[in-house]
Amino acid sequence: MAEFSGSPEDRPSEISETPDRSQNSSADFDPCTMRKTKPGLKRLSLTLTVLFSFFLGAPFLLKSIEIYRSPLPFRDIDSLSDSVGSSLLLFPCHFQTIFVGFDNLDAYELGSSIRDEMRKLTEHPVCGACSGSNYTVSVTVESASGCARNYNAESSCMWRCGAIGELDFDFGSGSDDDGVDEFLGSVLGSCEGLRKVYSVVVVNRGGEIRAVVGKYRHGWIVGRVLGEGMDELVARVAETFVKVFVNGGKESGSIHGEFMPVGSDGRIILSFNLLNADPTDWIYDWDFRRIDEILFTPVIKALGPVANISVESQVLYHTPKSSISYWDEKLDSYIFSTKDLPFFVNSNEWHLDTSTAAGGRSKILQFVLYIPSAKECPLLLQLPNGEISVTNAFISPMWGGVAVWNPPGCLRDSGSKHPAWHTISPQDLQKVFEIFMGQLRQLFGLKSDSLYVGVSGTTNLLASEKGFTEWELDVLSRQHACFNLVSCATTLGSLSRLVQSLPRMIIMDEIGKQDDVKFSLEAAKLTQNNASLGIYDASASPQGKQDR
User: What are the pLDDT digits (tens) for 494-543?
Assistant: First the structure.
């Protein structure tokens, strides 16, 4: 291995060969090209030009990244929410009582007594009822000496003295209540205008006491009414006004007005379904068009102020129920109880929601006519008290109703592989759709029967060929107006709180303009104004339902 043995003197000098960097650095500055004066106005003007261009474009930059928020009337929305939340929507109502065949009665004192009794019954009013401080009670007393009226008597709706004597049939026998109803309707026809007046005619004569409420806005009490005393008579008149005409004769446990089965767009679709559980046993069809023209056309027209209603129908096959029935030897029938009702509807096999006309906001009410198979026919519904249901039907609130129809004799078509087609007879179909009409009334919160049992006694309620009487439509209009107003205020209040809590949320013009928020506020204010004037139909009109 070679070794380096040279002396230090013989090594090359590293220091001498290193370039002089300080000398090279000073040589880089050329005195000919180097600036010898400070920056002047040229550089300053260039800097200012750049800054000016930046500030000039800043608004366009901010505009391009701006979050668009259409202005909303937050103050008006909060005012509406506070108004609806602090006070109920109550309507002014007008009542009148006519006493016929009474002597020595003071009309002023009777009016005051009836009003006081009504206030006791309306201590806790509900939304859509009549205001206890904003209704009038007029009284007319007809005696042999003439008619006496209190100061609240309506000049346009006065009872014609001696009108009862024009009746050519027995007023209180009950043999022709429809005739009495039409007669009183002709006498009190002037009370059916824009300012609706509810009337009760009390006739003092011999016989049993009978109370009837007609198809219009009046009722009558006939019989030996003084036998019970004037206090009881006044209480009965007040109960008829409050419990029947104002509250619709509803019982505790019935469907309340806040659950009105109406879509947010003001539409209801009535879907009628005929279900053949097992078509290998028998196949039934129905003449639905005939029933639609006869029965549902007047109903749809009557409910026009409350909702826009359309009707559909279909026939389905292979639709067994989900619940299990058992054989009862005593009844010689298959039985399903009320405990089985939650499991009766077979959502897997019953394809009921097939409506193409229903939008996302429309309400569909299903009405099902179920025809059981031969292996569970006849099929009967047993009530909790052990009795068999007369209608053999039940309802599901906000969904619809089901009726079970057993074919005559429950005889299978002789084991044929191709059973014959049958059509439900018009008589049976009429009974079935009367049941459906009662279910529709129950879904609206009204009574399905024709009796009101109150504290003061029993009152007969006459049925209307339209399915709903005039005073029942008034009840529905008032309650639905309240339902619409509360829903509108709740929805707008939620929208206002949401928008204000999210400052970077985009709000398009379609929300802030007339089509939505502003139109809803106008409709709500119009509803409140109509309610203050006692205009029921306009308060609950389908136009006002567009607020949601």
Answer: 888 887 887 777 776 666 565 577 788 888 888 888 777 777 665 555 44
Q: 3-state secondary structure string, 285-325? A: ECCHHHHHHHHHHHHHHHCCCCCEEEEEEEEEECCCCCCCC
Spatial CB neighbours of 54, under 8 Å, sequence gap ≥ 6: none
CB 458 within 8 A of CB 244: no
CB-based contact 299:348 (threshold 8 Å): no
Cβ atoms of 159 and 142 closer than 8 Å? yes
- In sequence order, which residues have a C-beta less than 8 Å from that of residue 148 and are 6 or more positions away? 105, 106, 107, 140, 141
Task: Report the chain's mean pLDDT, rounded to a whole number.
Answer: 78
Is the pTM value of this prediction over 0.85? no
**Alpha-carbon distances, residue 4 vs 58, 311, 406 (angstroms):** 75, 116, 125
Per-residue model confidence as pLDDT tens digits over 185-209: 888 865 655 568 888 999 888 778 8
Is residue 426 within 8 Å of 290, Cβ to Cβ?
Answer: yes
- C-alpha 74/C-alpha 512 separation (Å) is 11
Q: How many residues does the chain have?
A: 548
Helix/strand/coil for 246: helix
The DSSP code sequence of 79-127 is HHHHHHHHS---B--EEEEEEES--S--HHHHHHHHHHHHHHHTSS--T
Q: What residues have CB less than 8 Å from 407, skipping those under 6 apart?
A: 282, 284, 371, 377, 422
| Residues sharing a CB contact under 8 Å with residue 490, sequence separation 6 or more, in sequence order | 81
**Other Cβ atoms closer than 10 A to 189:** 11
Could you tell me whether strands 458-461 and 451-453 are parallel, antiparallel, or unpaired per DSSP bridges?
antiparallel
Cα(389)–Cα(404) distance, rounded to whole angstroms? 11
> Using an 8 Å Cβ cutoff, are 81 and 492 in contact?
yes
Residues 6+ apart with CB under 8 A from 317: 276, 279, 283
Alpha-helical (H) ranges within 126-282 are 177-187, 230-239
∠ CA 54-59-63, rounded to 5°: 135
DSSP letter string over 488-529?
HHHHHHHHHHHHHH-TT--B-HHHHSIIIIIHHHHHHHHHHH
Say if CB 153 and CB 96 are below 8 A apart.
Answer: yes
Residue 403 banded pLDDT, cuts 50, 70, 90: very high
Rg (CA), the chain: 40
pLDDT at 14: 46
